[in-house]
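Q: Protein A?
A:
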Amino acid sequence: MRVPGYTEIRELGHGGAGRVMLAVRDTDRLPVAVKHLSDPDLIERFRAEAVLIAGLDSPHIARLMEYAEDDEGAAIVMELVDGVTLRHLLAHEGATGPEAALLILRARCSAWPRRTRRASCTATSSPRT
């Protein structure tokens, strides 16, 4: 699906449930990430993820800018986080030590409110996106 108001540039990553695209907002050329859902069976979960992210304010989670849904699918427009993925870092630098691994895990999980932490600390902060 095309998200009105955004122009997609290239793919940043993909997985079983969809893909993430680099895009720019047409009004001001702000770079963003657009997460597209490819599995229609997951639409309710995807919608719930957007609602959850919209309520979070953390430097460890990309801010939700917009949610779009139509007959072709759904997309979450998020703040673009510039950098390399954890997967890339591990592939090129090798395994981290225990201290570095705990810092990454702590940052990812501390972003989620206590009430949602148990179920969600790896959802949208995925290293693929």
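Q: Protein B?
A:
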Amino acid sequence: MAGRARTSEEVTLHDAMAALGCICCRNKGLIQPFSGTPVSIHHIDGRTKEDAHKKALPLCGWHHDVPIPQNNPAFALYPFIFPIHAKGSVVGTSYESYRMTIQVL
């Protein structure tokens, strides 16, 4: 996806966000196998607007864009996990999750 290049400050912010692990998993109290890395940085306000790279969320693959396969044992344990791109927001709005992310940082 095209967008403007990140500044060094934004790269540092994204690295700090990634170190938190998935914010949605943290909010749900899920520790394994979701927490930690890898995460994707999900932009909540595009990629070209001013400060767009600062408005982002660290999300695991299952919360970002890849549904849990139904044959995966985790599907039975966590049927409420669905990708943000598939159904909108996982916990409240994206902006609520963003505020939570910034508070944790």
